[in-house]
């Protein structure tokens, strides 16, 4: 068995210490990775993460472990809204061990309690949804990193991808079905009241298909986002006009490639709105919760 571990130094964008608000002797497990050894003093603030692999080949074990650790760090970055374990700040060490003897230690703490609750929900995500969840937290973690690097345009685009991905998947299943059923229902009424005819596939299918296609074409991204917000009752987190703004802003960046320097303040605002909304989208989509019920507290977060 191979064990890969990394010491994660915790600093913010101005290199001051970050406190994760968990006891020093905490040891918790996320995505098959153990976090332990949390400590802080006047010189440094860090936590250690490790992952064990049964893989015989050392190189494969090393790369698989790093992949797991990076995903676990991205999940924690989502929960804390703070970039944890940036690759350039982490060094990985691999050793061969007989067995993994790590055991969770979960002392009383609000953050530890929330980690336990999150783990229970995380483990219930099915395989198909897990792929989407992992992609979302990758975008989220990357957006936080880019924001700390003051690359807010790229940060905004990354976090917007979460909103776009979830709303598109959600609407494809539910909104498309509602639209198709409504078109069929009203088409039947139309031909009945106009021609006094019942729907006949041979006579009416071509006309019906064209009407359905035109209505489906109205499902633009803005409508998909608003539909998800309405159905998941997220209206208290974002105003309809803010949705209009972030979609327009994103389309402007895509169309023109970049923004003017004078738009920096507006860009930061759009990023913050989108970041807040993306957290609620992920929480509602995968856990049926609002973000405030699963987030982890920190002394310096977005």
- Unreliable parts: none
Query: Rg to the nearest angstrom?
Result: 24 Å
Helix content: 55-70%
Number of strands: 5
Class by helix and strand content?
alpha+beta
Spatial separation of the terminal alpha carbons: 39 Å
| Helical segment count | 8
Q: What overall form do the CA principal axes indicate?
A: elongated
The proportion of residues in beta strands is 5-15%
> pLDDT average, as an integer?
87
User: Which sheet architecture does the biggest sheet show?
Assistant: 5 strands, antiparallel
Number of domains: 2
Spatial strand order of the main sheet = 2-3-4-1-5
Helix and strand pattern: EEEEHEHHHHHHH
Properties at a glance:
2 domains, single chain, elongated, 8 helices
Description:
- The chain has 302 residues and is α+β, with helices and mostly antiparallel strands.
- The protein folds into two domains: 2-124; 152-293, no CATH class.
- The chain is 56% helix and 11% strand.
- It has helices spanning 58-80, 110-122, 127-148, 152-195, 201-216, 221-231, 240-256, 264-287; strands at residues 2-9, 28-30, 33-40, 45-53, 92-96.
- A five-stranded antiparallel beta sheet has the order 2-3-4-1-5.
- The longest helix has 44 residues, at 152-195.
Task: Lay out the secondary structure.
Elements: E1 2-9, E2 28-30, E3 33-40, E4 45-53, H1 58-80, E5 92-96, H2 110-122, H3 127-148, H4 152-195, H5 201-216, H6 221-231, H7 240-256, H8 264-287
Antiparallel strand pairs: 1-4, 1-5, 2-3, 3-4
